[in-house]
Amino acid sequence: MLRFTVSLIILGLVGCATSPDTASIPTPPPTPTPTPTPQAVATPEPPPTPVWKPTGDGWRSQSDQDGRPVYFRKITTGDCGIYDYCLNYEVTTEQGCSTLYVQASLTNEAGQNVDWTNDTVQGLRPKETGVISLGATESGSFRLDEVNCR
After folding, report:
1. Rounded to an integer, what distance in angstroms lies between the CA atom of residue 82 and that of residue 28?
2. Do 61 and 72 form a contact (C-beta atoms < 8 A)?
3. How many secondary structure helices (H) and strands (E) does the chain include?
4. How far apart are CA 17 and CA 142, in angstroms?
5. Measured distance CA(29)–CA(143) in Å, rounded
6. Residue 51, C-beta contacts closer than 8 angstroms, at least 6 positions apart
């Protein structure tokens, strides 16, 4: 009887042991629930910087070689000097120019290009005005062809 009891105990122990094919697979830890990513909040664009323009009536602009506006307006003051006909412009820029060069063509009443003229203003400070005088020996209309602010 003792032998039978010992066998049962041994069988009981063996029966309690787990075999590799019945071993329990460890359960992986639970996957954490992802925290929602905060949505990027659009930063409002700063208001555009207002473009500087001279005050007063009659100003027109033409871009210089770098695309910056140079402002012109006709003025009646000024002497034609050696020319029979002239057109005087008051000029200004926001940034100033060490040299402001203006070249214009002269067209007659038939629209033909008959002459050209040019003038410069030296040392034009930011927002300061200067005078450009375009002269010709015959009457016609001036067309601004080139504006360089250096």
Report:
1. 99
2. yes
3. 1, 7
4. 109
5. 82
6. 69
User: ∠ CA 83-135-124 to the nearest 5 degrees?
Assistant: 125
Cα torsion 48, 51, 57, 63: sign: negative
Enter the tokens of residue 130: 């200067």
| Alpha carbon distance 89, 118 (integer Å) | 12
What ranges in 17-138 are assigned the alpha helix state H?
none
What digits encode the pLDDT tens for the residues 100-115? 999 999 999 899 999 9
Structure tokens at 91: 């000029």
Largest CA distance in the chain: 146
| pLDDT at residue 3, as a whole number | 52
pTM of the model: 0.65
